[in-house]
Amino acid sequence: MNYSKYFNVFVIFGLIVSIDSVKNKSKKNIGSSATSSTSQSPGCFCKLFGEVDDCTCKIDSLESLNNLQVYPRLDSLLARNFFRYVKVNLMKECPFWADDSKCAMKNCAVKTCTAEQLPYGLKNADGECNKYAKEAQPESPRTAPPGEKDEDCSEPRGDLGYLNTTISKESEEAFKDWTKYDDAQETFCELDDDTSPNMQYVDLLLNPERYTGYKGESPHRIWNSIYKENCFKPAEQSGYNSQSLTEKSLEDLCLEKRVFYRMISGLHASINIHLSHQYLFPASTCYGIETWGPNNDEFQSRFDHEKTDGRGPQWLKNLYFTYLVELRALEKAAPYLEQEDYFTGDDEEDVSLKKGIKDLLRVIKEFPNHFDESRLFRGNKKEAKALKQEFREHFRNISRIMDCVGCDKCKLWGKIQVQGMGTALKILFSGDGMGPQSTVSAGSKRKFQLRRTEIVSLFNAFGRLSSSIHAVEEFRRRLS
C-alpha cells in the first residue's frame, strides 16, 4: 500500500481546512468590527432613508432616478457648447464689506474665453440678451442720433453735445408696462448686467468646480452671513451660529421658512460634496503633479455624525430636498424649455441638443412624486404676500453675497448655482398656477421669459446637485 500517497492527500486536506478556518475567522472579525463601528457611530449616511423631509418622495427612489437615468443624460448634455459657455461678471465688488481676502492661489483663477474660442452663435452680443424682450414689449419711438434726420423733425441734430431728454407719451406708457413686467417676473436673484464691460465668457469644462485650497475666515464669513443674516430662524435663537438649526428647532418654523433653510443647507452640502469628491492632493514628490479625486477623510470631516455634533447626516439629507425642488422646476418649465432653440450656430449640434433635452425632460416628467409648491404661501393673503416678499428678498441678498467670495473659481460656481436655484424658484411661482398639474406655458412670452443666462444656470445648477447625489453613492461604497 502506498502510504505516502494517502499522507499527501491528508496533508493537502488539512491545509484546505486550515485556510478555510482562517478565512471564516477573518470574516467574523471583519463583520464584528464593522458592527461594532456602526454601533459606536451612525456615520454619514444614517439619515438617508425613508422620505425626503417635508415631502412624500422616498430617498431611494430619488437616488434610483438620478443615478440611473438623470445623471448620465445630464452629464452628457452639460458638455455641449450651449451649456459649457457662460457669460459672467467676476469683477463685481462685494456690496456688503470690503473685499480684503482675494485668493491668490493658482487653482482659484478662472480661464476666460477669447472670441475665437466661442461657438459662432455666441459671438454675437445680442445672443446673451433676452431674445423675447423686443417682441414682448411695445416699441419705443426712434430718436435719430446727431447728424441724422429725425423722423419727426425737418432738420438734423447738429450739436455734438445734444442730449434729448424729452419723453413722449408713448414712451411713458411703455415705461409703465416695463415696470409692471419687471414686477410680474418673480426674480429671486440679481443677474449680472449683460451690457457691463466686465462680462466675460467662461468655459465651464476648463474651470470645473473642485477643491482649490480656498479656506479659512473668508469662506466662513460668506456662509455665516448667509445663515445668520438671510436664513429664517426661530425668534428665541437670535444668537445662533451658522447651520446650527436642529430638526427640533426647524419644527418651530412655518413650512415656507423650513423650505428656504433646507434649500440653502442642501446647496451647501452639495458644494461640500464636490470639494470632497474633487479634492486637491499635494503634488507627488516623484512627479510633482497635482491630482484631484475623492477624499474619504474630507467627506467624513464634513458629514460624519460624530465630527459634526450629529448634524452632518441631516445636512446630507437636505441635499435631496434641494434636488427635488429643482427637479420640479424643470418638470413645470418643460413645455417652455422644449420650445427653446438652444442656438449656437451649429445646426446639427443644436438639433441634437434639443433632442437630448426633450429626452431628459421626458424622464423627469415620468417621475411620479414631485415637490408640490402649491403648499407654500397659503392662508391669509396679506400675510402670505408679505412672507413671499421676505422669502424673495432673503434669496436676492444671498445672490449678492456671491460677489463677496474671494476665490474666482468658487465665485463662478457659487453664482451659477445660486442663479440656477433662483431661476427654479422663479419657475415654481410663475405659469398657469401652482401645484403638480401646473406648467409654464410655452406660448406666454409676455408673462414669463428666461434669459439664456437663466437657462444655462438652471441646468448647470441642477447638474451639480445630480453629480452630488451620484458622488454620495460612491462615498457610501468607499466607506462601507
Automatic annotation (TrEMBL):
Taxonomy-wise, where does this protein's organism fall, top ranks first?
Eukaryota, Metazoa, Spiralia, Lophotrochozoa, Mollusca
Q: Name one GO molecular function term.
A: protein-disulfide reductase activity
InterPro entries associated with the record = Ero1 (IPR007266), ERO1-like_sf (IPR037192)
Keyword Flavoprotein found: yes
Name of the molecule in the record: Uncharacterized protein
- Signal peptide start-end: 1-21
Q: Identify the catalytic residues.
A: C407 (nucleophile), C410
Q: Where is this region: Disordered?
A: 134-158
GO CC term, one of those recorded: endoplasmic reticulum membrane
Quaternary organization: May function both as a monomer and a homodimer.
Q: Which residues bind FAD?
A: R210, T212, W223, S265, H268, R302
List where in the cell it is found.
Answer: Endoplasmic reticulum membrane
One GO BP annotation is:
protein folding in endoplasmic reticulum
Annotated family: Belongs to the EROs family.
